[in-house]
């Protein structure tokens, strides 16, 4: 049985939950998520009932409602279950056999959304100027959004051309490269941040938030320049964990997320891209360039290389040289001049030169010629005799439609 620490004496249930979470040094995001699910659980069964008086059937009823009615994802379902188990085991001090029997949703493996180089370029251009540097930093280093926004002055080493990511996912530190293209913009950003730092000192505001009680150990560190944010917020706000003390926070992730969503639309990217997609694209493009997967694993901060291997699945089909049998079939019709190819590609004319759009077809008029690849590979030796790059017939047909 798990007993609560002796010095945690809050009366309200949610306050007790917060104290137990902070006692175990869980992240603020975990605290917010657990409080949300416990509150939702109590409201689902009626606020007059205390969780101490409920048990397995109530938990299963709530989780079933989430899965069947709300249709939440397996990861959200699992997070809600973890919050309730934490409540009963650590806050209420109950360790009952049925807790181990609660079914956990099966984890679904999803391929990450990855942008091409051209899409990343359009996206970064479409980002507003005040958010563009953050977007370039995420793509250029593979950092997560909060890791980039929480960057402090002391963690950017221009001499060694590295950035130290502090307290990343799982509380781990790691080192990533400092892109040469960002050295100048980051120095300009730090000069702007320095102006806000001096204004805060002149106004007598509290220093920035420091983790793990460092503010008590080093009393002036919070007010020092080296601990200041690289991307400080334009206005001051109240610290939710220090009794509402006014201090300057880093840029809020919601602001960047909203700007990113608008930029994806303006760039004409038909993919469900989020700021985390830049991290996926960073890893995929490094592997495409021939970077060792162990190096990519270290840059991403993955504990297990199997997590990094997901990006090889993204590359496997597109870069393996596997050709669709439909392309081979259409090419054979085109080279032999046989009839019947028009049935394979309605609206296109197949002749000895390849496949082209029918001039009298209004659906695809103006689509231009659809050229098939040569069946015989071209092994060019001299640079001037390099083979032209021709699109596949399938890809062109899709783009034309």
Provide structural commentary.
There is one protein chain. With 401 residues, this protein is mainly α. The protein contains 18 helices and eight strands. It starts with 12 loop residues before the first helix and ends with a helix.
Detail the topology: elements first, then pairings.
Blueprint: H1 13-23, H2 28-44, H3 56-68, H4 74-91, H5 98-101, H6 117-126, H7 129-141, H8 145-149, E1 156-157, E2 162-165, E3 174-177, H9 183-203, H10 214-217, E4 237-238, E5 246-247, H11 253-266, H12 275-288, H13 293-300, H14 305-308, H15 310-319, H16 325-336, H17 341-344, E6 348-351, E7 354-357, E8 369-370, H18 393-400
Antiparallel strand pairs: 1-2, 2-3, 4-5, 6-7, 7-8
Helix pairs in contact: 1-2, 2-4, 3-4, 6-7, 6-11, 7-12, 12-15
Number of DSSP E strands: 8
Class by alpha and beta content: mainly alpha
Flag low-confidence runs.
Answer: 364-401
Pattern of helices and strands: HHHHHHHHEEEHHEEHHHHHHHEEEH
By CATH, the superfamily of the largest domain comes out as Intergrase catalytic core
Q: What fold name goes in the CATH topology slot of the largest domain? A: hpI Integrase, Chain A
CATH architecture of the largest domain: Orthogonal Bundle
The CATH class assignment of the largest domain is Mainly Alpha
Number of domains: 3
Mean pLDDT: 81
Residues in helices, as a percent range: 40-55%
Over all CA atoms, what is the radius of gyration?
28 Å
Helical run tally: 18
Strand content: 5-15%
Strand order of the largest sheet: 1-2-3
Shape: flat
Largest β sheet strand count, sense and barrel closure: 3 strands, antiparallel
Q: Roughly how many Å apart are the termini?
A: 64 Å
């Amino acid at each position: 049985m798990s007993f609560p620490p002796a010095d945690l004496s809050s009366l309200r249930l949610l306050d007790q939950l917060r104290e137990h979470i902070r006692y175990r040094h869980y992240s603020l995001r975990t605290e917010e998520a657990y409080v949300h699910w416990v509150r939702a659980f109590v409201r689902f069964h009626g606020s007059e009932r205390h969780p101490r008086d409920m048990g397995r059937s109530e938990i299963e009823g709530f989780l079933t409602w989430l899965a069947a009615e709300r249709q939440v994802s397996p990861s959200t379902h699992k997070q809600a279950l973890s919050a309730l188990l934490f409540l009963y085991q650590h806050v209420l001090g109950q360790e009952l056999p049925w807790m181990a029997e609660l079914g956990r949703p099966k984890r679904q493996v999803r391929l990450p959304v990855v942008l091409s180089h051209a899409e990343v370029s359009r996206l970064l251009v479409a980002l507003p100027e005040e958010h563009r540097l953050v977007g370039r930093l995420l793509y250029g280093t593979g950092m997560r959004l909060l890791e980039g926004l929480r960057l402090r002055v002391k963690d950017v080493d221009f001499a060694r051309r590295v950035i130290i990511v502090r307290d990343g996912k799982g509380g781990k530190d790691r080192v990533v490269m400092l892109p040469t293209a960002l050295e100048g913009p980051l120095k300009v950003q730090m000069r702007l941040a320095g102006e806000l730092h001096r204004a805060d000192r002149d106004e007598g505001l509290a220093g920035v938030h420091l983790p793990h009680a460092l503010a008590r150990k080093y009393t002036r560190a919070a007010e020092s320049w080296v601990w200041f944010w690289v991307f400080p917020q334009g206005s001051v706000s109240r610290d939710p964990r220090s009794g509402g003390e006014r201090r300057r926070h880093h840029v809020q992730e919601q602001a960047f997320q909203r700007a990113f969503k608008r930029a994806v639309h303006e760039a004409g990217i038909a993919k469900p891209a989020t700021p985390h997609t830049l991290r996926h694209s960073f890893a995929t493009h490094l592997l495409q360039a021939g970077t060792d997967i162990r190096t990519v694993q270290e840059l991403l901060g993955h504990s297990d290389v199997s997590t990094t291997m997901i990006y090889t699945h993204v590359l496997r089909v597109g870069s393996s040289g596997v050709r669709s049998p439909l392309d081979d079939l259409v090419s054979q019709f085109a080279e032999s001049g046989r009839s019947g190819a028009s049935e394979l590609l309605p609206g296109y004319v197949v002749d000895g030169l390849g496949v082209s759009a029918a001039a009298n077809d209004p659906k695809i008029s103006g689509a231009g010629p659809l050229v098939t690849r040569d069946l015989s590979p071209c092994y060019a030796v001299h640079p001037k005799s390099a083979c032209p790059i021709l699109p596949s017939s399938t890809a062109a047909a899709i783009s034309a439609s």
